[in-house]
Amino acid sequence: MNIGIDMMGGDYAPLEAVKGIREYLDANGTARLTLIGDETALKPLLEEYKIPATAVVVVNSTQVIGMHEHPTKALKEKPESSISIGFHMLAKGSTDAFISAGNTGAMLVGALFSIKAVEGVIRPTISTLIPMQNGGTGLLLDVGLNADCKPEQLNQFAVMGSVYAQQVLGIDNPGVGLLNVGEEEGKGNLLAQATYPLLKENKDINFIGNIEGRDVFQSKADVMVCEGFTGNIILKMAESIYDISRGQQIENDYFNRFNFENYGGTPVLGVAKPVIIGHGISGARAFRQMIGVAEKMIETKVLEEMGKKFTS
Amino acid sequence: MNIGIDMMGGDYAPLEAVKGIREYLDANGTARLTLIGDETALKPLLEEYKIPATAVVVVNSTQVIGMHEHPTKALKEKPESSISIGFHMLAKGSTDAFISAGNTGAMLVGALFSIKAVEGVIRPTISTLIPMQNGGTGLLLDVGLNADCKPEQLNQFAVMGSVYAQQVLGIDNPGVGLLNVGEEEGKGNLLAQATYPLLKENKDINFIGNIEGRDVFQSKADVMVCEGFTGNIILKMAESIYDISRGQQIENDYFNRFNFENYGGTPVLGVAKPVIIGHGISGARAFRQMIGVAEKMIETKVLEEMGKKFTS
């Protein structure tokens, strides 16, 4: 197993990425890591943090895509950037997964255009983990890749989310809820109304019905499905709850779980190979988590499993 | 000024309504209150709480619309219910406002079909107050009446919200934000993309641009505009934050402000007379607040002010 890591992505690159790798190795991580970045900047850090040459291979990149560059333009004009090289290596099979905390747009464009979609998938999706009050973890999707959706897409998100929850999060027979404005069938906007019957009839998921805003943190559903507009707003509100609780100097275990660094990054679901996108502010812990997620996605062949659902 | 109150609506009716009236009178409230409800149930409570006959008039109702009844059906089949009578009195001018914590659907149907819309308004809307971290209060709309919206409707919500924020909340030149998935113009789903230019060109509002989920509690905008699907989910998530902080035994002034009882009810904006819908769990404090909101809406002629924006 070989995991590619963009060492130049994120606000604290490459230092925090190196520290994350150190943490991963300390926890007996065994994947081979391909570190893509500016060799001259990386070398002293790898020495300082005693990263053994047996665990990593450094691939030099001479360009960096900035956090605010236009994604397609940057990918086109910077073929020697760490993100471009990362996708190139993943596409041709030199690596089995690719992780970056860099330009989110460029990561999405790279995932969508340089990595094949899982067969049968209309559009890939991105998800986030949601800390539940009972200690568990839920999965919310889409969280921003698809701001406008058709019912068929939401139906696919439900399947992809279920497979991911089962294989990677280890949730047995995950319950799927449709984010909506009321509990009863027939409630909602046109999209939700049209999606409900599809989910109800879908044999590949355990549909539990509509869930409301108040249920998001209540583990009513393990997999929560909505279009990316609503999902993105929920995600950013949830992130802000952590900032607020810090600002209010509240020390609470549950609210601390809203620290999204705990979860590392967001996998792109529906593309054929694991691509994990980290937050710009990713620190060592986030990098370590992302490596762990990539590892698990490779091990469990979760993306292949998704493919089976759409082609059978 | 005469404010109609449904004494039979809500989980703790009529007791909490009576206690709310007591609190209102204790705070030197001077509006005349028309109490619509079961006379035999009300009389002993009004005596017990020493509500003077000079302050209130009791109008007997012999039917009650339950919390889970079908709104249109119930209003049709129960003309002697407190909600039906309340709207009848408001429509013919016997009262100047109507408050109920009863069946929300019936309240909305009553407001839309028995009270004229403000001239020029495409569809009325409902809003909620949002506690801001800086101590202020924001207004979010729509929060569920209009799950699917056109850009023109969001543009009208922006105007109605601005007038309400100015007149009733006392916010000078309120900033209007469009709820979206990114800050830049051009971001968002098709609705948000089409709404942005309308808000930008609207001379009746102080448009500050897009706001994201993380900005909802940050007083970036005083008036936050979205369709009712997203708004309803935000509202119910915000309500759940209070429940969570209570469940976690967090005693924090800011999180305590998420107790939506503080705000009483939700006025229906865009109908020609004040209609205020309370939460089913409304207690004394919520009733008192709702009477205060109705009073302020009558005093400031806020609904007339809205009308001027759409007819001039």
> What number of structural domains do the residues of chain A give?
2
CATH level 1 class label of the largest domain in chain A: Alpha Beta
Model regions low in confidence, pLDDT < 50 over at least 5 residues of chain A = none
Of all chain pairs, the largest interface belongs to: A-B, 39 and 39 residues
**How does the helix and strand content of chain A classify structurally?**
alpha/beta
CATH homologous superfamily caption of the largest domain in chain A? Isopropylmalate Dehydrogenase
CATH topology of the largest domain in chain A: Isopropylmalate Dehydrogenase
Give the neighbour order of strands across the main sheet of chain A: 3-2-1-4-11-10-5-6-9-7-8
Query: Averaging pLDDT over every residue of chain A, what do you get?
Result: 95
Order of helices and strands of chain A: EHEHEHHEHEEHEHEEHHEEHH
Report the major sheet of chain A: 11 strands, mixed
Radius of gyration of chain A: 19 Å
How many DSSP E strands of chain A? Answer: 11
**Multimerization state:** homodimer
**Tally of individual helices of chain A:** 11
Q: Provide the helix percentage of chain A.
A: 40-55%
Question: Strand percentage of chain A, roughly?
Answer: 15-25%
Shape of chain A: globular
**Gross CATH architecture of the largest domain in chain A:** 3-Layer(aba) Sandwich
Amino- and carboxy-terminal Cα gap of chain A: 28 Å
